[in-house]
Amino acid sequence: MSTFPDNLLDSLSIRREVPLAPFTTWKVGGPAEYYAEAPDRDTLVTLVRTAEEHAVDVTILGWGSNVLIADRGIRGLVIRNRSAQIEPLSECEFTPRREDFIRLQQLDTAKYYSFSDLDYPEEPGPGMLVWLDSGVSLGLAINKLISDGLTGLQWFSGIPGTIGGAVYNNIHGGSHFISEYVRAVEVFKDGTLYQLSADELDFGYDYSRFHSSGEVIVRVQMCLARGNREKARAASVAWAQKKKLQPHNSAGCCYANLSEEERERLGLESIGWGYIIDQILKLKGTQRGGAVISEHHAAFIENTGSATAGDIFSLLKLVSDTANEKLGIRPQLEVFLLGFTPEERSQLIS
Ligand SMILES: Cc1cc2nc3c(=O)[nH]c(=O)nc-3n(C[C@H](O)[C@H](O)[C@H](O)COP(=O)(O)OP(=O)(O)OC[C@H]3O[C@@H](n4cnc5c(N)ncnc54)[C@H](O)[C@@H]3O)c2cc1C
């Protein structure tokens, strides 16, 4: 097992056996073998570089709103990314781009999740290129950028997370994806800091190259519109209000929607797992220890206060096994499992 020399622990403010549950929205999971916070980009890169030099595994934690951390914790170095700079770069030509990952339309959309009443097209025209540190909180970025007259990110209001976590999984807000705005990403891997253009990021529905590349996202360059500030602010506030009704003692929706072809093949009314878990699998409200399949939205699992990662894992497994029995498919997880063994992961990820 690779370790840090003791002298480095002090000089880089790396601590041992730090509980990670408080740094996640599910509030479960064990400790990090090594833990450090990166208040800025330089510290983030220094920590990753040093870990690489000592062959210590690195896990980046953003807001912790899309992860399930095992009760045994995570081996290696966990870096909580707090880098927070937003820097305007230069003018850009903003062209509205709609990603063609069509899996967002939800027939079972409850009234308070409906988005079409808020959506509007941003006009093409002069925009601004902006670098955002990967640790910037989404909420902070949205507010600051709209105040500066830069619009586009209002669709992601109310989503807890950092810019790095958002790009990692190409988050969707309403009918928009963050990839619509990303022009480049600066990453670190194997001792090198380098840039990737948007075309190299392999964005898809709930997907980017970062799922398998092992690269650390250091900062993200976006082209934002010089759009209507008041309209964007109003959409942002209204959407955040709706998102507030979702259970926040969760990691959001646990499953990626089905494709339209899968829905048709299975003869289902909806592509959404909220509908499937509730109406087909009949698992809404099922409890394991302190975890429950949400009564508000059956694709969310809530921590009622005393859940362990094991409780949540067993609900995820129950949904997966029941879907396999009844429909012959296993849902694709939208949350990331950290600290689990390959055998455990294989029980949920086909
Ligand atoms: C109430 C609620 C509502 C939500 N609503 C939505 C929604 O509408 N749409 C949506 O898409 N998601 C939603 N989510 C899920 C989640 O908020 C987003 O996916 C969010 O962007 C995750 O960001 P994070 O910083 O918390 O990532 P984390 O959970 O900290 O990390 C997620 C993954 O990204 C990796 N990662 C994070 N930062 C970096 C980096 N800098 N470099 C490399 N890897 C990195 C982590 O290692 C981990 O594997 C919701 C969650 C909650 C709790």
Automatic annotation (TrEMBL):
Pfam families: FAD_binding_4, MurB_C. It comes from the Bacteria. One of its GO terms (cellular component) is cytosol. GO terms for molecular function: FAD binding; UDP-N-acetylmuramate dehydrogenase activity. Signal peptide: none annotated. InterPro entries: FAD-bd_PCMH, FAD-bd_PCMH-like_sf, FAD-bd_PCMH_sub1, FAD-bd_PCMH_sub2, MurB, MurB_C, MurB_C_sf, Oxid_FAD_bind_N. It is found in: Cytoplasm. Its main location: cytoplasm. Pathway: Cell wall biogenesis; peptidoglycan biosynthesis. It catalyses: UDP-N-acetyl-alpha-D-muramate + NADP(+) = UDP-N-acetyl-3-O-(1-carboxyvinyl)-alpha-D-glucosamine + NADPH + H(+). PROSITE patterns: FAD_PCMH. Its cofactor is FAD. Residues 27-227 form the FAD-binding PCMH-type domain. The active site is at residues 253, 334. Its EC number is 1.3.1.98. Belongs to the MurB family. Cell wall formation. This is UDP-N-acetylenolpyruvoylglucosamine reductase. The gene is murB.
